[in-house]
Structures are given as structure tokens and as C-alpha cells.
Structure prediction request, 217 residues.
Amino acid sequence: MAAERHIAAMLQQIARQQDIVEIAPQGTPLKAAALAHVAEHHGYMYGVAYRTGYKNSLVQVRMYRDPRPEARVREAATITAHPQAGNGGTVPGLKQGSLKPLPEAVAAVAVLKDLISFDVMAMYVASRTQKVMCYLACAVLSGLMLIDKSPVEAVASGATVALLCTVAFQVGAIRRGKITQRLTAAGFHVVRDEQGAQRFLRAGQQFPGGRTTPFAP
Prediction:
């Protein structure tokens, strides 16, 4: 089954004690979140997610090895409880042979899904410069259409495209705003990474790679 192949491939990376594990299941952010949940139980922490592949059809999630002692304890307990994980056996929080979360893991997987969705949507959130360029393109479109169309038709066409751009910008901002509310309610803090991008960390947590957070444990 595809689910078992994805689990086995991820656990092979984990078994090599890699500092970074890449997860790229074919499907929705929910499937990626399910695998990320398993990786967390094996001592890893969520890093970042983005779209890749043909027409950005794949959700790629990067998990980092958690350096904290409690992560090693969690990893050891998981290995003991699920000795056949990756070989058709059970894995923590998921129904056997699938990427569907068990009832006790639904909330944790939902949080990971929000983290993944927020990062993935970042590529569709336009900056101020991109918005200006979009509206300038609409104005240029109107100007070009004046060659063959009436002024009313040209302006209407440019305005329609500009309206569609505005709606797309607003929908993305609203969706990310709702995700932000859910994550902060779940105990996450909004921070900025080295590139200035908005990220989420729990209190006391560090950025992957050892960068410190602005709040203490």
C-alpha cells in the first residue's frame, strides 16, 4: 500500500539518524501531517513545508532532529512500543496500514496540518511589490485593449482582472489569519525567521538548526 511505502521510506531516513528528514507524500497536507506526527514520535520536530514537483503538486515537509533530551526519551519509547514500524507493523497515532489518525491523535495531526498549510500558502501570499506589479499589469492590459476595444470595454476588462487579483489576495490573507488564530489558541507564538517570514513556535522551542527563540522556556 502507498501509505506503508511512505511510512517505510520516512522511517528509513530516521533509522539513519539523519538530522533532516524529508516527507513528500502524494496527496493533501493532511497526509503529510500524519507522517510528520509519526516523525515527532521518533524524536523530530517540524521545520518547514513548501510545494514542489510538477506544477507544485507535491507538499514537501522538512523535519529536524529535536536536540532536547525529552525527544530521545520519546524516540526510545516509540521504538519499544512499535518494533515493526516500517515493516507493516503499527506506528504511533495512525491506523495500521494507513495515514488516517487514530482518535487520540486527531488534534495533534490537525495542528501539524495547520503548520503545513500556513507555510504552503506562503507562496501564494503576495508582497506589496507583487501587488503593485499585478495592478500595473491590469492597467497595461487596459491600455493594450484600447487598440481594438472601446474605452469602456478596455477599462471594464482591466478592472475585472484587478478585482479577481484583489479577491485572491484577500482570500489567502483570511485563510492564513484563521490558521494563525487556531495555532495561537493551541499554544504557539508568532515569530519571524531569519528571512522575515512568519513562523510558529511553542514557548521554549528553538528554530530548527539551533537558532534561539525570543522567549524563554
In short: The beta strands are 20-23, 44-52, 58-65, 188-192, 198-202.
